[in-house]
Specification:
Strand order of the largest sheet: 3-4-8-7
CATH class of one domain: Mainly Beta
Radius of gyration: 61 Å
Low-confidence stretches: none
Shape: rod-shaped
Largest sheet: 4 strands, antiparallel
CATH superfamily of one domain: Immunoglobulins
Distance between the termini: 195 Å
CATH topology of one domain: Immunoglobulin-like
CATH architecture of one domain: Sandwich
Structural class: alpha+beta
Number of helices: 6
Order of helices and strands: EEEEEEEEEEHHHHHH
């Protein structure tokens, strides 16, 4: 705009100059749907700008996952990229090419790469210690359960004996047979069901005759009474002869 003055007044004229210049750019970073997106924004005249993406120290041009909207270009990074990369953006128009703008991007680095060596070793030691502790606790629980199960299957004999003693009555104790008493009773004279131990059988009477046992009169030792009665019958003729 130009303004001229004199004594009669002033006059102003406006003119426009179209200055053409090559693009200038800058890169910003954002995240869309869990993916890292780089945005290259350019200012240029003329505004017809083309964008080129590259990785620093590499000659290949990135053409996949690139979208241009006006003076902006969007580059969506692949999720499998783990190492640090420096991305370069070139903006071009009819005047020339811009100075490349760049940005360092780590991509989706694994969680173990985010730790330093010392911190990584500490983390691994903690994880290993926790796993070992869990294994030891499980082994102890298994051993205790097995011992308890074995104790339930095989109870303590002394405890079982004490329990049986408590449950037994005085009459049960009287019915129990003592080995010494058994030997004593076997050696008594009235025990005629079997021979005394280590003694041969020797009948008292050579002419002993056995008669039928009368269970009504003699009870459990009827065989003894019957033998005595038979012996008396054998001696009775001699008494009769003496009377004659």
């Amino acid at each position: 705009m130009c303004t001229a003055y004199n004594k009669h007044g002033s006059n102003t004229q406006t003119t426009f100059f179209n200055v053409l210049y090559k693009p200038e750019c800058g890169i910003t970073q954002t995240e869309v749907s869990g993916k890292v997106v780089l945005i290259c924004t350019a200012t240029a005249n003329p505004a017809e700008v083309d964008f080129t993406w590259k990785v620093k120290n590499e000659n290949e041009t990135i053409e996949d996952n690139v979208e241009k909207v006006g003076l902006q270009s969007f580059l969506t990074l692949e999720t499998r990229v783990e190492n640090v990369r420096t991305y370069l953006c070139y903006a071009n128009n009819s005047v020339g090419s811009s100075i490349p703008c760049e940005r360092d991007v780590t991509g989706n680095v694994g969680w173990w790469h985010r730790f330093e060596n010392e911190n990584l070793m500490i983390l691994l030691a903690v994880i290993a210690g926790t796993i070992l502790m869990v294994i030891i606790i499980c082994i102890i629980i298994i051993i205790v359960c097995r011992r308890k199960r074995a104790a339930d299957k095989c109870p303590n004999p002394s405890a079982t004996k004490d329990k049986s003693d408590l449950n037994s009555s005085p009459s049960d104790a009287l019915l129990q047979t003592d080995p010494d008493n058994k030997a004593f009773y076997e050696n008594l004279p009235f025990h005629g069901m079997q021979n005394p131990p280590n003694k041969p059988f020797r009948p008292e009477f050579s002419d002993l005759d056995y008669a039928d046992v009368d269970y009504r009169s003699y009870g459990p030792i009827n065989y003894k009474a019957a033998s005595i009665y038979a012996a008396q019958r054998g001696n009775q003729p001699d008494d009769d002869e003496e009377l004659l």
